[in-house]
Amino acid sequence: MQEEYKREEKIVEKTEMEKEIELIKTIIKTREELKSDNKNFEYAKEELIDYYTYQIKANQAKLDYLIKLAKLKGIEVDMINNKKYTFLGEEAG
User: Fold this and answer.
1) What band does 27 get if pLDDT is binned at 50, 70 and 90?
2) 15, 80, 87, 93: which could form a disulfide with 32 (CB 3.0–4.6 Å)?
3) Which helix (H) or strand (E) holds 86?
4) Residue 32 CB coordination number (10 Å)
5) Furthest CA-CA distance within the chain
6) Res. 16 pLDDT band, cuts 50 70 90
7) How far apart (Å, rounded) are the C-alpha atoms in residues 31 and 83?
């Protein structure tokens, strides 16, 4: 017998500022992933070449979309380019 999922807490809607901060974090993270994919592609062999080609195309498309979304929200994209992504206090990349 399957149990039905029950939500224990009411989900709180994020403020506009929180949404913009999340968007900026996602742009920075995606940009760092793209850099990593490009670096890994340089050293890839055989089947991994196709894998990193796919990853590069996917992350570039995602980054293009996120930047377009940021511009529509009036976020200065140039200021984002100088930021690094950090996760739990550690720099990525």
Assistant:
1) very high
2) 93
3) strand 86-87
4) 19
5) 54
6) confident
7) 10
> Tokens representing 74?
């009036």
Q: Does 93 map to a domain? A: no
Identify the residue whose tokens are 């999340």. Answer: 22
Q: Is 53 contained in some domain?
A: yes
87: which strand partners?
90
Domain-embedded: residue 88:
no
How far is the C-alpha of 13 from the C-alpha of 22, rounded, in Å?
13
Q: What phi-psi label fits residue 88: left (phi over 0), alpha (psi between -120 and 50 degrees) or beta?
A: left
Q: What span, in angstroms and rounded, lies between the C-alpha atoms of 47 and 50?
A: 6
CA distance 12 to 69: 23
Q: Which domain holds residue 65?
A: 28-82
The token pair that represents 81 in the structure block: 């380019």
